[in-house]
Amino acid sequence: MQRRLPLSVAIITLNEEEHLPRCLASVRELASEIVVVDSGSTDRTAEIARAAGAVFLSESWSGHVAQKNKALAACSQPFVLSLDADEEVSPELAAALRRLFADRLPGPDGFWINRRTFYLGQWIRHSWNPEWRVRLVRRERARWAGRDPHDKLEVAGHTARLTGDILHYSYSDLQDHFGRMLRYARISAETLRRDGHRCQWYHLVFSPWLAFLKKLILRSAWRDGWRGWIISVATFFSVFAKYAFRLEMQLKSPPETVSPAAAPAVPPNRNDSESV
């Protein structure tokens, strides 16, 4: 058995019994510590996490950014790898991590890792690829930031890139994709409301088309065939729904006085790719 690295793996969960075993298996022999922060699962998530030797913590849902900061704070190793429950570390990435920690702790404070997504029976090569994200960080130099549900891991210090991929098994089918798309659009609209951003007419008219064209042409989604077209159209409706929900909130309750500290009310099962 190879030695485990001075590395914690942080995962947030909600009813992830289908995906969690694959995620945990990919890091079980790699990391010295696995921390799972759960927000009220009613399936076998807790049982699966504990059986794999993970530290299992129950925390009420407080939004993507806050929840992931709780998981980061619960880790004890010098470096933390953040994963979603529907992700796994590829063999190439596992080998790169072992090389990185072979002699001593690495110099950079954070590392960008590409995430590759499996969608409707095929790996997506263009629409969501490459998708570089900071996922490996020196624990004391990093924090989660961004606007729910689009969180991002920020590092105070130098960053570098790692070879290998995080493999992402995001949507089980179209109903799952479109359902979560609407849920995330609603959360995004709530975030806009809390931040004081109002929906203007041009947001509804132009922003969805710009998102569609960026995905289809600039990201070459058309090269992914019919999957790429579905992803591009879903991106259009995701942006349209976000601003439509925001407009609905404006029309229902003017004027709005909401505390900036309020958190989204509905915890989605996991973080998703940029399509939402």
Name the features:
globular, Spore Coat Polysaccharide Biosynthesis Protein SpsA, Chain A, two-stranded antiparallel ribbon, alpha/beta, 276 residues, 9-stranded mixed β-sheet, single chain
**Overall pLDDT score:** 92
Strand content: 25-35%
The second-level CATH architecture of the largest domain is Alpha-Beta Complex
CATH superfamily of the largest domain: Spore Coat Polysaccharide Biosynthesis Protein SpsA, Chain A
- By secondary-structure content and strand pairing, the structural class works out as alpha/beta
The CATH topology of the largest domain comes to Spore Coat Polysaccharide Biosynthesis Protein SpsA, Chain A
Written as H for each helix and E for each strand, in order along the chain, the element string is EHEHEHEEHEEEEEEHHH
- What's the end-to-end separation, in Å? 40 Å
Number of strands: 11
Total DSSP helices: 7
Overall morphology = globular
Number of domains: 2
CATH class of the largest domain: Alpha Beta
Give the C-alpha Rg. Answer: 19 Å
- Biggest β-sheet: count, sense, barrel? 9 strands, mixed
What is the helical fraction, as a range of percent? Answer: 25-40%
Show unreliable segments.
257-263, 271-276
